[in-house]
């Protein structure tokens, strides 16, 4: 090496899990391009796809997140009914759906029905969690 030459040493960047998670969640928004998000955060798009896969498999968790702290429980949501009204099965309700009803059926038979105003972020999180493999 001669005098005046500079040597650049490339070091591997270490991404905190919280930051990886934040970037991955950004890519899950509708209409968002993974390569565009990768460029915005100076991450290789291939690396971001790896992180997304880790997230979908449940391997990418926020620091300090205790796996046992959050559990999803099976839930059956039904429309409100008057106290004197007997519980009705789906067949007794007929085909008519109340206004503001969202029904989602996942592969494998899991079905979710939501009545009333549905918050978009809550719905997105619900679908994402129920779409994960167990």
Task: Label this structure with key terms.
134 residues; mainly alpha; Arc Repressor Mutant, subunit A; 2 domains; two-stranded antiparallel ribbon; 5 helices; 2 strands; 34% helix; elongated
What does this molecule look like?
It is built from five helices and two strands; from the N terminus they run H-H-H-H-E-E-H. The protein is mainly alpha-helical and 134 residues long. The chain folds into two domains: 55 residues, Arc Repressor Mutant, subunit A, CATH 1.10.10; 63 residues, no CATH class. It has a two-stranded antiparallel sheet with strand order 1-2. Helix 1 packs across helix 3. The longest helix is centred in the middle third of the chain and has 12 residues. The chain is elongated.
Whole-number count of domains: 2
What's the average pLDDT? 76
Rg from C-alpha positions?
A: 23 Å
User: Total number of helical segments?
Assistant: 5
- Gross morphology is elongated
Provide the succession of SSEs.
Answer: HHHHEEH
Which class do the helix and strand fractions yield? mainly alpha
Number of beta-strand segments: 2
Classify the helix fraction into a percent range. Answer: 25-40%
Sheet with most strands: strand arrangement: 1-2
Q: pLDDT below 50 for ≥5 consecutive residues: which ranges?
A: 84-93
Strand content: 5-15%
